[in-house]
Amino acid sequence: xxxxxxxxxxxxxAWGSDxxxxxxxTEREPxxxxxxxxxxxxLGIQRNEDPAKLKPLSELKFGVRVERDGVLLRDFHMVHxxxxxxxxxxxYLSDAVFLAALNCDDRGFLEKIAAALENPVYPLFLGRRSxxxxxxLVIGITEDDLVDSLRNADPLTGENNGSKRIxxxxxxxxxxxxxxxxxxxxxxxxxxxxxxxxxxxxxEHDPMAEL
Length: 211
Fold this sequence. Notes:
Blueprint: E1 2-9, E2 12-13, E3 23-24, H1 32-43, H2 55-58, E4 61-68, E5 71-80, E6 85-94, E7 97-104, H3 107-118, E8 138-142, H4 146-152, E9 164-170, E10 174-182, E11 189-200
Parallel strand pairs: 3-6
Antiparallel strand pairs: 1-7, 1-8, 2-6, 4-7, 4-9, 5-6, 9-11, 10-11
Helix pairs in contact: 1-3
């Protein structure tokens, strides 16, 4: 059992799972499909390649800890077509920070992913091409399971006194379409998974610890 920990931070992030027509929404935390898409880009897997290449990534267990919620930002874009123009709305998370976790039994596979993220084949972005991540991206690999890794990892920001929310893949919970099966622009496919959410208790602050 091993878990790869990632720091997902940038001026803007966008993790869409239910965008329709001219409205491009974002979830309040990274999605499994979005993070796996970033990993696939790092490994050099193209959108139209055999979905079998994506399967080992899709089978990784996924979770995230919210370090900083960020601010929901709405942006307007004017799209011009041959005979008409229309306005689109795109939502982003501004100044958010997340700890993401990918878990499996094969530590070597996670080490390969970590190396690819540090030397990616294709550019990396946090949900949309306009959202490149800030560094460092890779935190490291732990021997803990998925949930314990999210609970026990060191904070990524100085905002450590409040409670933190973790969201992770589980055997029961809220059902979502977040398992990527194909990123083909002609025929994207997603499978179902269960998400569970919990709040971690606030850390106690010792005022004498700095002395």
